[in-house]
Amino acid sequence: MIALLVDYGAGNLHSIGKALERSGATVRVSDRPARELGGADAIVLPGVGAFGAAAERLGPSLPALREAILGGTPCLGVCLGMQLLLDGSEEGTGAGLGLIPGRVVRLRARRVPHMGWNDVDVARPGDPVLPRAGQFYFANGYVAAPGDQADVLAWTEHDGVRFPAALRRGRAWGVQFHPEKSGAEGLALLDRFVAFARTGSDAAVSP
Fold it and tell me: In the chain, where are the structural domains located?
């Protein structure tokens, strides 16, 4: 199973790449992902970085990435990668993939950024990638504000502010936390994503 890890200047390529390899994926890193999509079984958008800079670097590849994901290639967005699944962000200019309608907004909490372990409550139990509640590691100052609450797969809370911890629409998943830094539970999530990409077991799901 080949996972295309998109390089748009995010800071955690090595750690997420190693975690995916541990889950059984062959990782292909590319800063020109449109050229590599043909042989990819899954797409991973890593985290750590600013929305505007990432959107600018990703810009030329946006149409091809969007087409591939809407065409059925599973995608996992991590932290900033999840935010890039939406239309745009208050953090900076530039367009996201627009796969999940909505925008990214600043976390309206007293303590920002939000860093540390948090409980995650699943809104749609039984999902093949995030089937149940757990604890995961977060590092974020911005959060997703999807246009449709049905796209929220899980919730968390920081400093009294509730926000989406995970989104899903079709075969595109986004997690605001860092599974590669979340111990056994995070690695199990990546195991499930790789297994899903390998088997295509949710073929009935539409984009």
Answer: 2-199
The residue annotated as part of the active site, out of 36, 75, 158, 178, is: 178
**Is 157 annotated as catalytic?**
no
The predicted-structure confidence for 132-155, as pLDDT tens digits, reads as follows 999 999 999 999 999 999 999 999
Residue 14 falls in the annotated catalytic set: no
Residues 68-124 pLDDT 10s: 999 999 999 999 999 999 999 998 889 999 999 999 999 887 787 888 999 999 999
Cβ atoms of 120 and 90 closer than 8 Å = no
CATH class of this structure's domain 2-199: alpha beta
Q: Which of 75, 91, 158, 180 is catalytic?
A: 180
12, 178 Cβ separation under 8 angstroms: yes
From the candidates 75, 79, 91, 114, give the one annotated as an active-site residue: 79
